[in-house]
Amino acid sequence: MMTVIFRYSVAILLIASVSIILVCSCVFGSTFVSTYKFSDRDEFTRDVLFYMDHLYMANGYWGVRTVDISDVYNPVSVHRYFPGGGREAAELERSGNTLFLADREGGTKMFDISNPATPIYLTTYPSYDKSSRLALRGINLFVGDRMGGLVVLEISEPYVPIEVGRHQRPYETHGIALKDDYAFVANPWHGFYVLDISDFSEMNEIAYYEKPEGTQPGIWDVGINGDYAIILCQRYGMQVLDISDPYSPEYMSELLLPEGQGTGYDSPPLDIAFIGNYAVISNGLYGVYVIDISDPYNPSVVEHIDTPGFAGGLDIQGRYLYVADGQEGFHIIDIGDYVKCPSDFDCDGDIDGTDLGVFATAFGSTRGNPPYDEICDFDNDGDVDGLDLAVFATDFGRTDCTD
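Request: output the structure for the sequence above.
Response:
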């Protein structure tokens, strides 16, 4: 028995004397929730990004499509931005109410998404070669511009992005991961390098890690989880590196994955996301792999999620995994079994007032009726009620959600 009182603004949620029986399962697994597949087979979804009940799709030469997923079982397309001119929408990022698109030859585009359903184009920062990958930190956007190097833009005024730094080295600049004052940058057809980015005007290379033999073309992306980096090695698999000393990344282990096909530049594995001690990796025609990395010396596959298309960009919000799947559009997959803290709605590692605000807004609602939010319906029974509040109450105040 417990009494829980939460205050959010002027709202008071009071649930008294809640009795619950928790049934725990040790069987891990994912469940497909829904798929959004466009009628035009020329569209090819490379990346996806979630924001406020909407999913943005980077669809190659067909620009950016906006899909309303407030009902995760029935995604509905509500908007499309089509730049034309042979551009190729490749990757998405967001800061506040601004959406950023790496549009290859079309540069880096900015959109106002104050109304998430109707992105408004703001401006474009031109690319030297091909704007392909993005990473955010505060008011700075890092752009992987292939032969143009790593570009740092100051975006406090997204109408007027300002270049504040650039680092170029031979071959391509691609996937980017940030930790403290360092950038870890994939360098396909070769390895990856580490930059000291404490001064954007003088970014210095402090380490270089060669690709393993057998990977072709090279290292495509880098993901960071604590003091470990996971590098995605095309047509090979992944390696885990100790980066506690960024001046000297050290090999720890590797895990081979089936060759996800693709050709040259687009050879998988292609993207990585983290849920606590699990890494989720997209692998082209071989779908998605969930990998236990709790022991960095012995990573192991715990689930293979087969998708019908070409699995690329990933996004994780709450209990849902969103997978860009090439000509098959995107999939929404319930991965709640892997989520350590289901109430960490903003995925920042703790459950605080921001998460409470999300829950308080959805409390009392039912599926299909705003402001219902699927991520707050922990028992998936179609309403956000006292039983869901009891789960949230148990989680509230936790700070260990990324351990």
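Residues 378 and 391 are 7 Å apart (CA to CA).
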